[in-house]
Amino acid sequence: MQAQNIIFPAQILRGPGVISQLGDICALLGxxxxxxxGHQALMAVGDKIRHQLEGCAVELVxxxxxxxxxxxxxxxxxxxxxxxxKADIVIGVGGGKSLDTCKAVGVETNVPVVxxxxxxxxxxxxxxxxxxxxDDGHFRDLFPLPQAPAAVIIDSAILAAAxxxxxxxxxxxxxxxxxxxxxISRHNGQLSGVARSSSANSRICYDLIESCGPAACDAVRAGxxxxxxxxxxxxxxxxxxLTSLMSSGAHAAASHAIYEGFxxxxxxxxxxxxxxxxxxxxxxxxxxxxxxxxxMEAIRLxxxxxxxxxxxxxxELNAGELDSIVKASLHxxxxxxxxEPVTAGGLYEAxxxxxxxxxxxxx
Length: 363
What we know:
Largest sheet: 6 strands, parallel
Structural class: alpha/beta
CATH superfamily of the largest domain: Dehydroquinate synthase-like - alpha domain
Number of domains: 2
Distance between the termini: 53 Å
Strand content: 5-15%
């Protein structure tokens, strides 16, 4: 049996207002904290963090922008800041790229990391993995880490205040856990216990989003957390994270490959990881030759969760730009996980079928 290293975050706090426990958590980890995050995230929670640390005798030694990309140069730069300031805790705030950067900085400096997602766009807050990009935003690689965050703070009051598109991105990315795992595992024969756990968690992700996703979107539209939002946040962070942890991240297929294709185009690169994955989910179902009924069911759910259904909802692309996206998708590492080879013609047909079915939704 092949050896497998399964790494879990040490502590996850969830629910409205749990950022109030940040100071107590950090006091157990160290005495000098450096906050790293995106500009908007730092503005959204910076004062709360400062107040929490002051109350627990943890010194805030600085606040740094993560750099805009989870790139090797930003990781190296911020690791130097941690060392220069003698920080013994990193507090990461923001979305996936920011948190991925912070996790890698923690590994580089051997410092514990506390993650505070301010948008619910991916499960990056909990996983021992950094998705690295080049400085220009092009996808580089998946970079496994030897440690997960020391603590994760999933505060639904903070997340309810974020724009809806970021929750939609989290829903699209989390639905991929089920769609992609199913696409890969149904051709792999008997599943091991660990793989069964990953499969079960990915199915929980789907079920929670199907039942609670639309109402969770309503909560974000209103800017106030509700029970359905908390359930959906469990799916996005905990159950999606468990899916990744228990499968060592090896569960991605065409949905993520299509996202990786979108990163080569200037018009689509910054649209949002999970939103692009969400569109890729629908293309994956079409590539699998799922029935019209099943594809329409997925389209309805995606629509209720504010996930794009057409290329035109992402960007106006000319033929050359779409061709570059398709070619990059086919050469993305995740496309190799598909049980059958995917061709350019097959991907074009899948996109056309999804868009035609989406038009029926409006009819």
